[in-house]
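Re: weekly structure request thread

Next one in the queue (156 aa):
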Amino acid sequence: GRRKGLSRVPIGPGTEVTLNFRLSLPDGQLIDQTGGSGATFKFADGSLLPGFEQALVGLFAGDQTVVTLSSDQGFGAVNEDNIHWMKRSDFARELLLEEGLVVSFQGPEGELPGIIKQVREEVVEVDFNHPLAGREIVFEADIIEVVQVTSEIVKG
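Done, posted below.
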């Protein structure tokens, strides 16, 4: 049964949401999931991708949802500008470079992970797109609690 006095607040601007979620690929491969007590975030604070957040709008505590998001709503399309050829000599000698290896580079904003796509004699192709770019994502959410924390009213 519902907890006594659980207010029926729909998810939207001005709410704080506690939920459990699972992210997986359409083939069932698990990407990420919350721990036992769930995750709490304020709506539109940037901790959830906008596509995931949109899938939650209007849901109430106790609701469950499963949505398949296109890559545009998920981690974005693959951007060719994020794929670079780098000199083999830029990599540590002892590093065994092989396709699929994730290597961290120091970027201006901190660490930037890249995925090795191709290894040639002199050059290495590195993809700095998010590993899930271009993929559909299955988003399962189980809403535990929704609290109105600020009184933003969405003007229709």
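The radius of gyration is 20 Å. The chain has a mean pLDDT of 90.
Next request, please.
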